[in-house]
């Protein structure tokens, strides 16, 4: 679809005699044969009216993105285009070369006239030779082939310090080696990160926490002394001579062990191939099987607030577990709120950090032949709800981190198996582990003739506890239980029917 869209844009802009260039990360990805999630265009005319007309033609949404830089955004509908965004920016300088000179890295300082998009390689096919019309004043093509990340100018980070985080993200996610001169400039300008708005830092940090490349990105942040600038509430020293944080967050020789384990688990939970020891592969086989369930796989991509997914929240919790294992709740909240993550995400992350070390445990599942309800798992989900799924995965990550240097012993195997049973049981036996509520206040008032008041809540709690213990299974049994336990009489027995009982099984 992206190739058809590019051809359509070529015709659309050509018919209007508008000088336009495909630039930046979108061109870089297309040259690598990868599908970009956005298309960056530089146009010689005012992008605002053009973007509005484009939005109408594509039945898309127009957004005035950046008033200072004049960038206008067109967000295409998911059908039929998928998730594609078109950013239109005015030409900065007297020529496209002047415009490219203001960009961050050589691999992004490339441009292709829109009329030459047909010379791009097909998706999944890396370009063997640069397109003849490629505009490349800073040898970005050579750096792209050599997988080197190099700044365009010496003052790139001073112009926008956020580019330091972008450099680390690109280096880790794309596995590009950072040019020594670029690394030297990053070390020199690291303190300038204080000038960047927390929201922008948050967005880059979340993009770094892609499970497959998170460990490499965080190790780079640590090496360049950027973590104290991102989390000043948790790390008080940013002295360049201070040892790296990872020197004190190693277990069994593995730096960032919880982050590493969480990344492996989330990758496995999303059906990706991960590197695990043979013992871990056997132990986590149920999680791999669970990854085939669309509902479970989709869960980690679901946004909680803004652009923060459940996967992002769990990875950030894993990072903080390694970075500040002894931090108090108020310090964690301060660090997360500073990044403008919002109260809901902050509560989710602090919940994972606190409950994963709380003094509670889940008793193993009773033997199937016993016929007993798994009371411990029922009470677990009654207490934590769906958050219990995230907590179970996070507890597994912390267990793996604690056993990095050792083969799983019997105690760990038993503990991990119990947690995995909780996860699989939620999806495979949901009505057993999370039984539907049998009674509510209105039913008690109508059936038992009770007045509204505190007694209603007390009785509902009793019957729910009995249900979780497996003592009652239907509405009739729940009402009978309350009468026997509390010497109550049904006020209107004629209102209760066998059909009613069948509907509550």
Describe this structure in words.
There is one protein chain. Strand 9 and strand 10 (254-255) form a beta hairpin. The chain has four domains: 1-146, Beta Polymerase, domain 2 (2-Layer Sandwich); 151-248, Hydrophobic Seed Protein (Orthogonal Bundle); 251-433, no CATH class; 441-503, no CATH class. The protein is α+β, with helices and mostly antiparallel strands and 505 residues long. The strands form four sheets. The chain has a six-stranded mixed beta sheet with strand order 3-4-5-2-1-6. Strands 7-8 form a two-stranded parallel sheet. A two-stranded antiparallel sheet has the order 9-10. Helix 17 crosses helix 19. Helices cover 51% and strands 9% of the residues. Residues 248-253 and 493-505 have low confidence and may be disordered. The two termini are 49 Å apart. It is elongated, with a radius of gyration of 28 Å. The protein has helices spanning 2-15, 24-31, 47-57, 78-81, 96-100, 140-146, 156-159, 162-173, 180-189, 198-208, 214-223, 227-230, 257-269, 278-283, 285-290, 294-299, 310-323, 329-338, 343-355, 375-384, 387-402, 410-428, 430-433, 441-448, 454-468, 475-486, 498-503, and strands spanning 20-23, 38-43, 61-66, 71-75, 85-90, 111-113, 148-149, 177-178, 250-251, 254-255, 303-305, 308-309. The protein contains 27 helices and twelve strands.
């Amino acid at each position: 679809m992206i190739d058809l869209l590019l051809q359509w844009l070529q015709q659309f802009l050509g018919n209007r005699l508008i000088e336009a260039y495909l630039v930046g990360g979108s061109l870089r990805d297309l040259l690598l044969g990868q599908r970009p999630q956005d298309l960056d265009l530089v146009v010689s005319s005012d992008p605002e009216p053009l973007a509005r007309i484009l939005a109408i033609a594509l039945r898309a949404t127009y957004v005035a993105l950046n008033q200072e830089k004049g960038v206008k955004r067109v967000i295409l509908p998911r059908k039929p285009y998928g998730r594609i965004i078109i950013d239109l920016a005015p030409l900065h300088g007297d020529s496209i070369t002047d415009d490219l000179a203001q960009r961050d890295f050589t691999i992004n300082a490339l441009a292709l006239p829109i009329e030459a998009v047909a010379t791009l390689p097909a998706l999944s096919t890396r370009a063997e030779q640069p397109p003849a019309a490629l505009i490349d004043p800073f040898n970005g093509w050579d750096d792209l082939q050599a997988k080197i990340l190099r700044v365009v100018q010496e003052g790139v980070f001073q112009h926008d310090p956020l580019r330091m985080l972008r450099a680390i993200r690109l280096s880790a996610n794309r596995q590009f080696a950072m040019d020594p001169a670029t690394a030297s400039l990053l070390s020199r300008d690291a303190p300038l990160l204080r000038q960047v708005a927390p929201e922008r830092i948050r967005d880059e940090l979340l993009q770094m926490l892609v499970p497959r490349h998170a460990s490499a990105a965080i190790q780079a942040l640590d090496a360049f002394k950027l973590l104290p600038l991102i989390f000043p509430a948790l790390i008080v020293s940013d002295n360049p001579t201070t040892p790296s944080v990872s020197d004190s967050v190693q277990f069994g020789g593995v730096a960032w062990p919880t982050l590493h384990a969480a990344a492996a688990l989330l990758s496995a939970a999303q059906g990706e191939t991960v590197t695990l020891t043979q013992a871990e592969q056997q132990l986590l086989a149920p999680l791999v099987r669970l990854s085939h369930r669309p509902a479970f796989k989709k869960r980690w991509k679901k946004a909680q607030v803004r652009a923060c997914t459940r996967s992002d929240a769990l990875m950030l919790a894993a990072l903080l577990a390694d970075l500040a294992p002894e931090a108090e709740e108020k310090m964690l909240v301060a660090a997360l709120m500073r990044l403008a993550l919002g109260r809901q995400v902050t509560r989710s992350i602090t919940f994972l950090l606190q409950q994963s070390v709380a003094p509670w445990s889940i008793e193993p599942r009773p033997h199937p032949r016993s016929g007993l309800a798994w009371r411990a798992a029922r009470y677990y989900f009654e207490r934590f709800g769906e958050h219990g799924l995230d907590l179970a995965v996070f507890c597994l990550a912390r267990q793996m981190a604690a056993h990095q240097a050792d083969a799983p012993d019997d105690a760990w195997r038993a503990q991990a198996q119990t947690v995995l049973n909780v996860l699989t049981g939620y999806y495979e036996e949901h009505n057993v582990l999370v039984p539907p509520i049998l009674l509510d206040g209105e039913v008690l008032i109508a059936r038992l003739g009770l007045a509204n008041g505190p007694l209603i809540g007390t009785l509902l709690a009793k019957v729910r506890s009995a249900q979780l213990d497996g003592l009652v299974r239907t509405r009739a049994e729940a009402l009978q239980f309350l009468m026997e336990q509390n010497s109550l009489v049904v006020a209107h027995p004629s209102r209760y029917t066998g059909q009613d009982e069948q509907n509550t099984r």
